[in-house]
Amino acid sequence: MQERGYHHGNLRTALLEEAERSVIENGVAALSLRELSRGLGVSHTAPRRHFPDRAALLDALAQRGFDTLALRLEEAISAAGPSFEDRLRAIAHTYITYAQGRMPLVELMYASKHGAETLGAPGAARAAYAVPYAVIEEAHRVGELADGLDAQDAARLVFATVHGLAVLLSTGMIPSDHAPNIVDTSVSGLLGGLGARSARNARRNA
Question: Is the CB of residue 84 less than 8 Å from the CB of residue 135?
C-alpha cells in the first residue's frame, strides 16, 4: 500500500476525523482501525503509533467531542447577553445544534465519561459540564433562581431538558425544522420551572 504523507500528528487528527465520520454514519460497532487505515491510505499498523487499540481511539474520540462541545458552549455564552435567560438560551441552542446529526457520537461520549480516570474522556466530560454549570451556579448565587432549588438540581433539570430535546430531534419525533421554536419554548418553560427572575417578573406583570 502506498502511504500518504502524515507528519507531526497529522495522522492522529486524520484518524479522529475519519473515526468521527464513521461513528456518525455507521455507529460505534462498525468502527474498525483497519478500515480507517484503508480509507486514509496508510498501513494497518500506522494508527497504532497514536492509538494502541480500538478502545484508545474511542476514548480519544469521546474526549475530542467533549472538548469541541465545551469550546462551542464557551463561545456561545460569551456572545450572549448578560442575563441568565440570554445565557440559558445560548446553552440550549448550542447543545442541540451540536447534537443534531451527531447522536451516535454523543452516545459514545456519554458512555465513555464513566471510564477509568486514567483515560481522557472523563476529565473532558467534567470540563464540558463545568461550562454551563458555572452559568447556573452564578445565577443561583446572585438570586436569579428560585429559593430552595440548588445549583445541582437546576443543572440536572437543564441537562435533562436539552438532552431530551436532542434525542427527540435525532429520532425524528420532533421535526428538525421545528427545532429553533421548540428550543425557545422549552427554555421558557425551564425558566419558569427554575423560578428564574425574568419568569417571576412576567408572572407578576401578567
Answer: yes
- CA 100/CA 128 separation, integer angstroms: 17
Q: What integer pLDDT is reported at residue 184 of this predicted model? A: 95
pLDDT digits (tens, 9 = 90+) for 148-195: 678 999 999 999 999 999 999 999 899 988 889 999 999 999 998 888
Note whether 47 and 71 are same-domain residues: no
Q: Which residues neighbour 12 within 8 Å (Cβ) at sequence distance 6 or greater?
A: 50, 51
Helix 179-194 vs helix 84-99: crossing angle, to nearest 10 = 140
| DSSP string computed for 7-47 | -TTHHHHHHHHHHHHHHHHH-GGG--HHHHHHHHTS-TTGG
Tally of domains within the chain: 2
Residue 36 maps to which CATH number?
A: 1.10.10
In the 8-state DSSP scheme, what is residue 5? P
- pTM for this entry: 0.88
Does 86 share its domain with 155? Answer: yes
